[in-house]
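Why does residue order matter? Because the sequence determines the fold. Keep that principle in mind as you read this record.
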Amino acid sequence: MKKGMDLGGMIDTANTPKDTGIPQRGAVQRKPKAERRSDQMSIRMKPSTRQRIEDLAEAEDVPIAEIIERAIAAYTPDR
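Structure:
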């Protein structure tokens, strides 16, 4: 019967490989999720608020979604 080899003494768990900048096999590389313009959202608001948004969109000749996106961008700090 062959005697197995003990590899426990050969592995140094405190030692880490050098970072070469090249992703290693099995490394998770996730692409950022692409933004789609076809997403929809339903929200409830006062009719007067909706009218103000529609009036702004009509005055600037842009879609309602653009008015909402600008408002969110202005409201969100550091973006």
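Helices lie at 47-60, 64-75.
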